[in-house]
Amino acid sequence: MSEPTAPDLAAQLQAAIAHHQAGELAEAEQGYRAILAEQANHPDAWHNLGILALQVEQHDTALELLRGVLQAYPQHGQFWISYLQALMRIGQFDLARAVLAQGRELGLDGEPVDAIARQLELLPGAAPDTPGEATPSTDTAAQTDTPTQEETPTAAETAEPADIREPVEEPTPTEPLAPTATETTEPADIREPAQEPTPAEPLAPTATETAEVPEQQGAEVSAAMPDQPETMTPAAAFEPTPMPAEAETDHDPQALAQGLAALAAQRYTEAWRKLRQASRQQGDEVEVWLALGEACQGLGRLDEAAEAWRQALTLEPANWAAESALLRLSQLQPALSAAAAAERHLSAGATLEAHWPEPAAPTPRQAHDALRVGFIGPGLCDHPHAQVLLPLWQALASSSLEVWAYHDAVQHDAITERLRAACAGWREVAGLDDDSLLAQIIADEIDILVDLHGHQPGNRLAVFARQAAPLQVGWLGHADGSGLSRMHWRLTDAATHPAGVEAQHREQLWRLADGQYCHQPLWHVLQQRPSSDYAVRGAPALHRGHVTFGACLPAAQLNGEVIALWAQVLHAVADSRLRLELPGLDASDSPLHVALSTQFAERGIGGHRLQLLPHDPSRLAVRAHDIDIALDSFPVSVGLSACELLWMGVPVITLPGARPASRAAASLLTTLGCPQWIAHSKVDYVRIAKTLASDLPQLNRTRLSLRVEMESSPLRQPQRFAEQVETALRGMWAARS
Its annotated pathway (predicted)? Predict the structure, then answer.
């Protein structure tokens, strides 16, 4: 079915607004939803649906819609006004003050904003007595008093709304939070109250709503918003500004190529826009939907990513890349149980293996004099995996194992050359399809093939499903497992896969006694910075006067629960700061930046306490000089990247859960001998942070001694680690059937 034209949608919108203005709210809702069913990004329909929800007193739904409008189109000043009015309408005064202060920081201005500010000066906490009104909008382009992108908010803690005594301009909608997504972004049907307010009715808070304010103000930060942000999906937390509606219909034959280039450079917002355009022009091409899903995940829009990958499966039901991407996405879903995740993996693995009933590798043969072990993955370069593989391979040079490497990426650097020098055999396979790679591995007579991909993009699990080697082992990538019966073993440890989880994996679990990781800092190989930059320095809190928490992670790992918990940490440690480094984070006016700032502001964390930075690979270790304590995410842990922070003296607080993906940092801390930083609950997580931050002299002593402790731990004993890996692989080989 072809998409409706702009004139068609405009006519539908005018009809819906006519119903809205006439007080025919059921018909108006039906009209707005019909528009959203045809064009999920239609901003006016989405915004007006939020206004309608507010009028019929569905407050949670209204706040969710209007907040989404603001996050998606922060350049429109009226969206700030609409959201503020909604907060005022239901008595969320502290939060409204925070949002107003946020907008002021970035240049939000105009008479309606001044009116709100005047009311705030008069209202210490009571409800406004004559608030302004919000009316359905007709055209986002009609806005005249709107801040530019650089005028969007970054957060503040002490702001509360006042009512608007003067009428304001019509609010104009933004891109919806995907009406085809989950229930957290799709509002329930809106029922009309006994007395229907018209769109022009003033949105004055009632006495009941005003009376609820003290209780809401005294609630925990995680409950600051009535729509329970702790359970909000990442897609609701991060919504990049879409392309203007008129630009979206333009034909651009280069959209796909430009989107892929932006995706490769981690310019996720640009990639999202171009690939959305490509999906309208080349919607029958699987490649478009696969790439669009990756761009959405880069922005934390997980529901939209899932939708894109499901569309790829609709076009090509046997497409493994899309199926595997959905499994990878499942790791990021806090509500998904370990048992449910395992069921998905096992089902997908069985379906993939069914394409090749017979294994491709020859019948298990006698091993070569030196057991030939092949490692295949994309991380044979400046990548966290290389910090484990290089010391291991160098130590295995004197063992009975012969290391072969299959470099499945185009990136080469000085670390790649070091890895190559440590191998008996090296193959460049990034340009090979699965059939050619399978033939190469069989020709090389690999005895044991080790997968380092997991379910990451571009993985080779379809090669493992055919059984390219007599014995196949998973390690490092995607701790939830492959789902393949022909992936015979997983190399792991007791902290990552504790006893009792065997039924959740097709692989048998071989637990290394001293942990599944070793670590070698590789800054000296790349020589990107002088060696003095990598010396441990004193805790920055000693000279700054405040504690700085920090994290470097993908936006997809910043779900609502993580943000809420980190906000609680900041509240528990007075005047503390949070420094976040994320791939794909653009300038301070980017939608991702604004969405993050808004999320923290809603939990009472002001912009002066939040530092958002784009990820800089050259600063992986030296960023430690700027933070006192590192915070880990969940349900996916930051994993190996925590090693460099620990090596630089920075404590890492982690909260492992039931699923293996959440336990990587716990494994590192167990091996290091620092279990006191492993939290057993969210309350414990906050307690650990507060304890570390409350004694700066002790925090500094910890910082200055942590590298020494790490150097004497199993993490920094590659020969010992190599002996355990060799014993494991020899044991697996001996146990093969």
Answer: Protein modification; protein glycosylation
Here the tokens at position 216 are 């809401």
Burial 573-589 (b: 16+ CB within 10 A, else e): beebbbbbbbbbbbebb
Task: Let me know whether 310 and 414 are in one domain.
Answer: no
**558: three-class secondary structure by DSSP:** coil
- Residue with token string 């502290």: 94
> CA 83 → CA 58, 73, 410, distances in Å?
14, 12, 47
* Selection from 37-51, 83-97, 237-251, 376-390 with the highest mean pLDDT: 376-390
Q: How far apart are CA 122 and CA 418, in angstroms?
A: 67
> Is residue 209 over pLDDT 80?
no
The first and second tokens of residue 58, run together, are 């569905």
Tokens of 340: 């449910």
Residue 158 lies inside a defined structural domain of this protein: no
Helix, strand, coil share (%) of the chain residues, nearest 5 = 50, 10, 45
Same domain, 419 and 497: yes
Residue 425 φ then ψ, to 5°: -145, 145
Which pTM value belongs to this model? 0.71
Q: Half-sphere exposure of 347 toward its Cβ, with a 13 Å CA cutoff?
A: 9
pLDDT value of residue 156: 32
My answer on whether 331 and 417 are in the same domain is: no
What number of CA atoms fall less than 13 Å from residue 523's CA on the CB side?
20
CA-to-CA dists, residue 493 to 512, 694, 724, angstroms = 5, 33, 12
Name the residue range of residue 561's domain.
540-716
Q: Based on the fold, state whether residues 320 and 440 are members of the same structural domain.
A: no
